[in-house]
Structure formats: structure tokens, C-alpha cells
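Box S1 | Example of a co-folding query
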Amino acid sequence: MLSSILLKASRSPGVRRAVVGFPVTRRVVDRFVAGESVESAVRAVRALRADGLTATLDHLGEDTRDATQATAIRDAYVDLLGVLHRAGLADAAEVSVKLSALGQSLPVQGEKLALENARAICEAAEAAGTTVTLDMEDHTTIDSTLRILYELRQDYPWVGAVLQSMLRRTPDDCRDLAGPGSRVRLVKGAYAEPAEVAHTHKPDVDAAYESCVEILMAGGGYPMIASHDPRMIEAAAHAAKAAGRAPGEYEFQMLYGIRTDAQRELAREGERVRIYVPFGTDWYGYFMRRLAERPANVAFFLRALIGR
Ligand code: FDA
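Box S1 (continued) | Returned holo structure for dihydroflavine-adenine dinucleotide
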């Protein structure tokens, strides 16, 4: 209930103005976002690398309203990839991209524009010596995102996809995307989805996650197990062993600022672990989804407001 209110609020311009306007919000946001600048993102990558972790950088932004804004986000990613290359960090960080930020939802030729912008980012990633993963947004965008993924993979077979276990279609998508070399990040799903297309009870989402883990681990691709849930992590380690995969033939992923001890513990155990590091000024939608995932985060936020 609280979660669906927060997810609705994540799309409301009025609530956005109010939340962003609280001076105290910034302190709470800092727990989940590495900073506003490219320098802060680079600092976060270096710190993670020192602890044996890799990163995927998200230049925050979504629901772009015009082509100029989409181009600016593309250019920001291209510049970021150049910075990573020059800093010698291309083996420590890739980038995660939201196609809605690149223009996907624009009414005229949005998909074409997003594809062109994503292609430019892939070209820059290839030149820098790293990779790109396409984040997955709400269910109405999936077919378009997968079409763009397949197009990009013609030239850049290393482009990663994200699949969400909460969606009923996902086991089929996992089977389609489990081929050799296919990088697939499996998540539970962070968007408010209707029951016609999604499991709405957490135990069903979790059971679907475990089935999808098995499909991906048994396939020929590179599974990226993105969850903070100890049960999902254990299921993935088990499925990897059953499929004869050694650490490094799959990876675990978690979000910046969430279960940081567990992130380092997995790396110490010899697992490959990648942290999703968001940075930039457009943090509102990302922040609200993190609040929606966990009521304790809302309490933390409210305590900060009251205590100011
Ligand atoms: P679950 O929500 O069951 O949480 C398990 C435990 O993790 C909790 O009990 C708590 O301890 C901790 N935890 C989880 N969320 C927390 C939070 N916000 N704050 C504090 N603790 C928290 N989604 C999507 O739809 N499209 C995408 O492209 C991505 N990309 C992505 C990348 C990566 C690397 C990760 C880790 C996640 C995503 N997600 C995503 C988000 C994902 O769909 C999901 O909403 C969150 O990962 C939370 O689900 P868990 O699997 O962690 O389990």
C-alpha cells in the first residue's frame, strides 16, 4: 500500500517539487546517490575498486521530454566513458542506461532516437574498453527496449539486458536471452505494475526470481544476479554450482549504499560483485523507488525531516 503510493508519487511533479524542496532531503539522498558530479562518480568507483568491487554507473535521468534533453544525456554518457578511459577505470566500471532518458517515450520516433543515442554510447563504451547495460523500466517499455537491445547487439554483442521477475512474461524472456555471451541482469522489479502482467505478492515474485536464476545459470549467457535478498543470493550460488559455473562466470550486483557489508563480504569470498552507482542531479525518481522498496527507508527520511 505505502509502496504503491510512493511509486505513484515518483511520477508526480507536485510531490517531486515538495520532496526536492526539503533542504533535509539531500542528506537522505546521499545514502543512495554517489554525488552530483562525474568526479563524485569516479571517486566512488575508486573506493569500490579498493574494496575489490566493480561498478555500473547510472547518470541519473529518466522520462526525457524532448530530443535536446535526450542528446544532452547521451553526450554526458559519452563524456563519462572518456573520463573512465583516461582515468584507467574502464575495467572497474561500465555504464547503465535508461532508454527513457535517451528519448524512448517521445511521441514521434522516440524508439528510433533512443536507439541512435544508445548506439553512440555503445560506440564510446567500446572505444573506452567497457560495456553498457540497458536498465528496464515499466512493463509498457519492454518490447521496445528488447527491440533496441537486439539491434545494438548486432554490432555490440556485449550489451546487457535487465529482466524483472515480477513480470509474468519474464521466464520466457529469460529463455530467449540465455544464449551464449548474453549478459542478463535479473532483478525483482521496481515499478508499480498491474496484476494482469505482474505477480503482486512478494512470495510469487521471489519464487519467480529463483526459477529465472535457474534458467539463466543453466544457459550459455552471463547471469548478473542483482538482489540484496540473502535467499536469492543463496539460490543463485546453488544454481551456479549445479550448472558447473565458477565465480566469475556470473556476478552479483547490488545498489550503492544498500547492504554494503554484504557487498564486501561476497567479494572477500571470491565472488565477482558489481555495484550500481547512480550520480547526478535528477535523483527524484530513483530515490522514491528506493523508499518504496523498504518502509524503514521512509521512517529514516521522516526522522531526518522531524529532527532538522
Ligand atoms: P527485496 O526487496 O526483497 O529486499 C531484500 C533485502 O534487501 C531487504 O530486506 C533489505 O534488507 C534490502 N533492501 C532492498 N531494497 C532496499 C532499499 N531500497 N533500502 C534498503 N535496503 C534494501 N529494477 C528495475 O525495475 N529495473 C532495473 O533496471 C533495475 N536495476 C537494478 C540494478 C541493480 C544492480 C539492483 C541491485 C537492482 C535493480 N533494480 C532494478 C531494483 C530491483 O528491481 C529491486 O527493486 C531492488 O533490488 C530490491 O529488491 P531485492 O532483490 O533487493 O529484494
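The two ends are 27 Å apart (CA to CA). The first strand starts at residue 54 and ends at 59.
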